[in-house]
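Preliminary data (for renewal application), Q0Z complex.
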Amino acid sequence: MTGAPVLEGLEHRLSGKVRDIYQVDAERLLLVATDRISAFDVVLDDPIPGRGEVLTALTQFWLERTADLVPNHLVGWRAGELPPGARRLAGRAMLVRRLEMIPFECVARGYLVGSGWKEYRAGGTVCGIRLPAGLREADRLPEPLFTPATKAVTGHDENVSESYVSEHLGQRLTGRLRDLTLELYRRGAEHAASRGILLADTKFEFGLATGEVVLADEVLTPDSSRFWPAGAWQPGSSPPSFDKQFVRDWLQAQGWDPAPPAPRLPVEVIEGTAARYREAYERLAGRALDDWLAEARQ
Ligand code: Q0Z
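Predicted structure:
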């Protein structure tokens, strides 16, 4: 078991599968993205070098590009903006405003895959929205859908209808979350398409600060989204994801269960996966990751 690192002057608050949160003070948190990776819901023993930096760099890229649409939680990411005890984590750490988190995942889908495809196949709807008959797995939807989900503490999130969300949050807040989710998806998908990447679906997390809706957490990263290389998309089956498919294919070829522990990864799989993450950042941001890292270390 490798726990979250001890950071001087910061209190460890919680850890997800591959990320850690520290409390800085009453108003601010530090989010740290590690290089750990999960596949088939199991965290692997081998980290992917640079993965945490790519997730942080992509989130920073998108938060800057969407700040005109919605305020976000990011306070600082360059070394000089981080608390002294966290400066050595520059590149994988974000100082953020602590929010009252909204207890729903705000998902937008442009293509029919994953749990959306499952629900459609079972009853012709996605999150209660009736869709035309005869759609195939991975088909492009007539228009992007807002398909919220509950945040499961353990296990998987559960799709819910927009009206279920509005019973909990009210119509006004729910409508704002839907509009923001769909506009963020449209912007992300349009930009990604211009770089040869399809954004199949993505999940946003929002919070409230003094009554205002604020975009939080990871934004339009391969962990919060399905990215497909545009050339690999073909309706009828779900295309491989841009980043993790290499690891998944290798694990599957080993005949792994998938119960822990996972097999150790060969160096070619580690390096091939690291290269795909880096490529995802460089294609989307149009900037070398090393250049962004140099800025982060200032
Ligand atoms: C994000 C998560 C992580 C485990 C809470 N700005 C914020 N204010 C309050 N809470 C959060 C945020 Cl981003 C918050 N998560 C998700 C992140 C490790 C879980 F790094 N949980």
